[in-house]
Write a structure and sequence with these properties.
The complex is a heterodimer.
Chain A (H helix, E strand, L loop, with lengths): L3 H17 L4 H23 L5 E5 L4 E5 L1 H24 L6 H20 L3 H19 L6 H32 L4 H10 L5 E2 L2 E2 H16 L8 H4 L5 H9 L4 H8 L1 H4 L5 H21 L4 H21 L3 H31 L7 H6 L11 H22 L8 H21 L7 H30 L3 H10 L4 H27 L6 H15 L4 H22 L4
Antiparallel strand pairs in A: 1-2, 3-4
Helix pairs in contact in A: 1-2, 1-4, 2-3, 3-4, 3-10, 3-15, 4-5, 5-6, 6-8, 8-11, 10-15, 11-14, 11-15, 13-14, 14-15, 15-19, 17-18, 18-19, 18-21
Chain B lengths: L2 H11 L6 H10 L3 H21 L8 H16 L5 H13 L3 H5 L4 H29 L10 H4 L1 H14 L6 H14 L3 H26 L13 H25 L1
Chain lengths: 553, 253
Amino acid sequence: MVAVLPLISALIIQLFAGSVGRSIARVSVAATTLSFLLAALLLWWALTGHGPQTLPLGNATAILLFDPLSTLLATIILGISLIVHLYSVRYMAEEAAYGQFFVLLDLMTAALLFMVIAGDLITLLIAWYLVGVLLYFLLGQDTRSQTAYRFAFWTLITYRIGDLPLILAAALLYDAYGTWSLTTIFTEIMADPEAHQVLGLPLTEVVASLIALAAFARSAQFLLHTWLPYTMDGPTPVSALMHAGIVNAGGFLINRFAPVFVHSGDVLHGVFIVGLITAVFGSLLMLTQNDIKKALGYSTMGQMGFMIMECGIGAFSLAIYHLFAHGVFKGTMFLSAGGVINDSRKDDGIPKDELYTFAVEKRPHKERQPWLLMASITLAVPLVILVFAHLLIAEDYFQKQGAIILLFFGWVTGAQLIFATYRMRTQNIWRLVGLSVLSLVVVVLGYAVISHAFDLFLYPDPAFRVQLYSAATIDLLSFNVLVVIVTLIVVSGWIVTYYADQNVFRRRQQTQRLWLNFYALISREFYVSDIYTRLTRMLLAISGRLNVWLRWL
Amino acid sequence: MPESLIILLAGIFLPLFPMSMVFNAIVDYSKPAWLRAFLLVTWPLIGLFILLNINVTLPDWLLPLALFTSILYALRILTLREVNQWSGFLATSLWSLLWLPVMQDTTAVLLYSYALSMSVPLILLVLLSTGLEQRFGAAYIGLYGGLARTIPRFAGVLVIVVVAAIATPVFPTFFIMLHLVVETLAAKPFAAMVLLLIWLLWSWAGARLIQGLIVGRASDVKIPDMDISTIGFYSMVLLALVFGGIYLSGVIL
């Protein structure tokens, strides 16, 4: 009923929208509310320790799976969908295709729900595919806008490219195990991971690589990301749903196939690298955008990079938490954007405080604290956290690579904050630094606690949790060398920035030119979309020429 | 009759390049909608009938030729603008893939149902193109646009018909394509990759058709939209396709 209610609502609206009018949206809201309550009930049922349940649909092929992952995600999807529904009732009131919008919204909710509760590969494929198609039409809600459809098409084609590896993975699994049932396939994989091979490679490695590719396309990973920053012409509720829910599907998919990734050799390392590149490039592009909407798009891309990266270090459940937290954060941001703009027209609301003076007016404090002292704090805090974690949480904490990497990112972020704000005009600089350090500690500890809670719920088997982390582990020496190299790069970057900021040495002409070239590269978004546009035109030219040669027959 | 002649004859009806040009030339010259619809139903059935009733050993080179034909026409659809021609090319791309199940010794009933499942959405598209010709004088992508605003009911039906034609779930062609990928992947992985590429090109072409027809500002001239009874007819056929797809999935997957 959880997934069927939105379908029924879509059908009712399609049939009666013409005669009932705009109040038909109430049906959609009511169905989503009811569905949300049912999903919450299922989540509570899972939280009270009940094991996974499967529900065959009609013939034996289609199966629904209610496990901690599916019940949690169904509740999140319906929660976000309900907010979007409520928001859309008034926001979309002026739209000519008001009823059609709610039909599409309900169908999208149903497709997302079927995607997360699919217990077999065919249901998963159908839902996965339909999400892309429905998103295309939702983004193109304004049928007058060629631009909206142009970028909706980018989304569709990227999603379709991402569908292909998932179809291949499903076909390979079916060919090997003779069943579409996910639970049966996973049970057999766990029993004998190396039972099957494809082209001389272990099946699990090939399937995990294909699943990762499908996840990359859906979650806008680098080189498959161009659609995300450009799809802002769709209605605001669709942007909210897309950034808060749909784009996170990659994290879900990797979690769903966790039993495959456990036996996937080096695939998780590849996932980590792709996530890392996406996080860096997404954040870099976000910081250099003039268009606030594109900046939001790139912000989502960066966050998706972090989510995929978390999967790459074996912190699968943390990726789910990230998906949830980012969904709520970004959804709120999109839905409140209109209100903020409206308020700012009446009153700019900019406080003339030290933060504004420092960040916007670029007027730093003339007197500053010793830089070396600040640098020492940034180095000491993570070490203290690490030592405490070693003493209080686990003795082998130094060996937990996933935790070290997350701490590393927390450290980079926190230190960057101290580095950026220590010259801010403030009455008490130590209060500011103290708050920065405290926020770093709270974030790191909060993440650790929440991650642990999600771990216990999503992956209750301790042996499987250990397997997940060890699948993402590399040998200790290489890991330590990497940590040292990356730390040196980050610290050198800070030192260079510091000296450049202080005008200690003059930038040479060549350096300036290099810097300008680099900025041009970023402002053209690394030419990725330009290359794709050129390739598309080439393909269309080939198609047209073939038609002329073959006389259109 | 020599085997090569039978294959040649079958290659006209289950299109293999360059014999595929025969079908497209006939579609081009057949102006009445009923004739085009008749051709779309009977053409692949004749091909299948020939292959199923005359004992012939199919050579291995037919598989790459069938895949080549399908991908060639899928690529060429991208730049087509005339809707009837678009339907003919998509039919060619779809039907040439019927050689794969023929070579895998699929039962006659299934083969005929594959052919019909592929043709029915295209017949609906041909009927819709006649509707466009009656309203605008031509069924031409990118010529007028704005159908979603000018004739929203017609545009809605058109979108669903195109979606059904390009092998989208839960229409039968989706399950047929999935079945073909599963069947070919183990023995011929390269063929499975080509199948997926063809599938992707169909989606691309479908999106271009939809964008070229429905997007844009509403026409200043009042144009009659599709009436309720006609919508009922299209809805019934599309619903039958959905149920047929779900049923087919239970049989072949």
